[in-house]
Amino acid sequence: MNSYRIAVIPGDGTGPEVMREGLKALKALAERCGLDFRFKEFLLGGEAYLKEGILLPTGVIKELKEMDAVYLGAIGHPDVKPGILERDVLLKLRFELDLYINLRPVVLFPGVQSPLREKGPEHIDFVVVRENTEGLYAGGGAFFKKGTPDEIAVQESVNTRKGVERCVRYAFEFCRRRNKKKHLTLCGKTNVLVYESDLWYRVFQEVGADYPDIETGYQNVDALCMWMIKNPEFFDVIVTNNMFGDIITDVGAIIQGGLGIAAGANINPEGVSMFEPIGGSAPKYAGLNKINPMAAIAAAQMMVDHIGEKEASEVLLKAIKAVLKKDLKSLEAGRMGFTTQEVGDLVAGRIRE
Ligand code: IPM
Ligand code: MN
Q1: 72 pocket-lining for ligand 1 (C-beta < 6 Å)
Q2: Domains of the chain by range and CATH?
């Protein structure tokens, strides 16, 4: 029996309740497919910080590196000043584990209504490869004359040749493996960011020379946002920097039905990877048993696929699709026709079928 050690970080807000349903699905899957998942829970996030001043201890990072995968709910707490938990827990996890790819599929499943009224599953099926360790997220900055009329705020974006190249190369490889349209779009802003986007553009051209089977294109980020809404069927794989990737994947999430279904993988191709619903902690829904756990369950599916259990990943994907198509009335919290727990039960039931 294949055995896997999985770190579970439920985190804040609705994180713990959606993770409970993700774990329920994983346990049903383990039974059905004969897998052994060994879960170890780590209490990180707002509560741990407020009660014990704990952010992300070095010992925890070391332990996580020994795991087969990390499964994360959400980090973010209304009583903690913005920036602390994000930078010192979530982003620190991404940086310390060198999770340099943030893979975010934008797929409209059958039965789910996109707010784009003319678009169906045949139109919305692409993947964003977001660089996850550099750019504006990694740069320094400073205030000068803070609080005065002469105040200056500088925020730097860091882009290394190595960092850009490994991300771009991953995107080409991924596009080849995905084997759909074999079309890779670079998203940047070459007309304004004449240093950063220039480096990305040059690396994209150079690396692209190794992939004659992949058709390439370039779009500025503003135009790309418009295209994602007007013509999402144009896209196959998009590669972009950390900040643009953050923004365009929220656009992606809404066109695929909302944060209730949007999942992502933070990948270190040479090490341990981390899987999370991309929606955040949604504090106003915390503890109400109303939030949609599908994004967390979809993140679990990406995790199962990533560790190499392809058959189990197919079973879970089929279960997710069945529940989306036949059971849920909507993906929105409180409008699903079921509670958070019941959605988890439905998925587990489909897995056992
Ligand atoms: C995301 C989130 C994070 C990000 C925040 C919480 C730091 O928005 O995963 O997309 O900006 O990457
Ligand atoms: Mn985001």
Answers
A1: no
A2: 1-101+263-353 (3.40.718.10), 114-256 (3.40.718.10)
